[in-house]
UniProtKB/TrEMBL annotation:
It catalyses: isopentenyl diphosphate + (2E)-geranyl diphosphate = (2E,6E)-farnesyl diphosphate + diphosphate. Its cofactor is Mg(2+). Keywords: Isoprene biosynthesis, Magnesium, Metal-binding, Transferase. It holds the Pfam family polyprenyl_synt. Belongs to the FPP/GGPP synthase family. One of its GO terms (cellular component) is cytoplasm. This is Farnesyl diphosphate synthase. Gene3D superfamilies: Farnesyl Diphosphate Synthase. CDD domains: Trans_IPPS_HT (cd00685). It is an enzyme of class 2 (transferase). GO terms for biological process: terpenoid biosynthetic process. It comes from Porcincola intestinalis.
Length: 297
């Protein structure tokens, strides 16, 4: 397998799936819908939809059942980015090399666009019920439960709330770990779990995938900290050095780049060892998880 070529092909397919569920921007709320579409179409790696599709394929599931969840996950993830960029949060003007939603559409409309994407995400995921039959109905219900738990107060939003509340304050490693494992890790955990759930994978495998997602999520966020310290705005497609400007305590900021790089390698290696213990195989997904360790943006 040529990973680079396969990644391009699968990313292109994931992007097509995600965009196929976006609303048509017309009618009285055309501006809102346009802002929602702008946010999702601004780009991105589509990592989470790729993970859902890959784990569903890995366990021999119905990939058409995974498509609404692929789109829903990207909508919910994008909602978090739109709100994260707001003046009340990180106050960033660029995301993925483009002006952020609040810069283009205004702060109020960006808030509504984020809310709209969150709501549409759940609506889109629930649409999977129309594509299933028999035992698959239970799979979709379980996947929806995971999606709700991992995006709510006990997951992504909980991590975001702690990050906001402690903004600019010195943080303990326990606090940093909580923020990383919830704000970033929760959606990665959910993405690996949901595809497998939709395919009817055993609970033991779901638990292993959740643990893999935790390590991958923490490694991904620490790598993000490192890139913020070492790369340029042009390379990242978003403002470099924003953590320092916002006086945000990060793992890399506490331990230094070299030690942070080593932690990323250790977390990634453990995740891959756990991946190799799974009952099923998916070479592309393994390569994708490994590639996150040395990404440049």
């Amino acid at each position: 397998m040529n990973f680079a070529e396969e990644l391009k092909k699968r990313t292109r397919h994931a992007d097509e799936v995600v965009c196929s569920f976006l609303p048509v921007a017309e009618g009285a709320d055309e501006t809102l819908l346009s802002a929602m579409n702008y946010s999702v179409r601004a780009g991105g790696k589509r990592l989470r939809p790729l993970m859902i599709e890959s784990t569903c394929r890995m366990y021999g599931g119905n990939e058409k059942l995974a498509e609404p969840f692929m789109a829903a996950m990207e909508m919910i993830h994008t909602h978090s980015l739109v709100h994260d960029d707001l003046p009340a949060m990180d106050n960033d003007e660029y995301r993925r090399g483009k002006k952020t939603t609040h810069v283009v559409y205004g702060e109020a409309m960006a808030i509504l666009a984020g809310d709209g994407l969150l709501s549409l995400g759940y609506e889109t995921a629930a649409g999977a019920f129309a594509r299933c039959s028999g035992q698959e109905t239970a799979y979709v219900a379980k996947a929806l439960q995971i999606l709700s738990q991992k995006t709510g107060p006990g997951g992504m939003l909980g991590g975001q709330s702690v990050d906001v509340e402690l903004d600019g304050q010195p943080l303990s490693e326990e606090q940093i770990d909580y923020i990383y494992s919830h704000k970033t890790g929760a959606l990665i955990e959910a993405s690996l779990m949901i595809g497998a759930v939709l395919a009817g994978a055993p609970d033991t495998e779901i638990a292993k995938l959740e643990a893999i997602g935790t390590d991958v999520g923490n490694a991904f966020q620490i790598r993000d900290d490192i890139l913020d310290m070492t790369e340029t705005t042009e390379e990242l497609g978003k403002p470099a050095g924003s953590d320092e400007r916002n006086k945000k305590t990060t793992y890399a900021g506490i331990h230094g780049v070299e030690a942070a790089e080593e932690t990323v390698r250790q977390l990634s290696a453990r995740a891959l060892r756990q991946f190799d213990d799974l009952e099923a195989e998916e070479p592309f997904l393994r390569a994708l998880l490994a590639s996150l360790t040395n990404r440049r943006k």
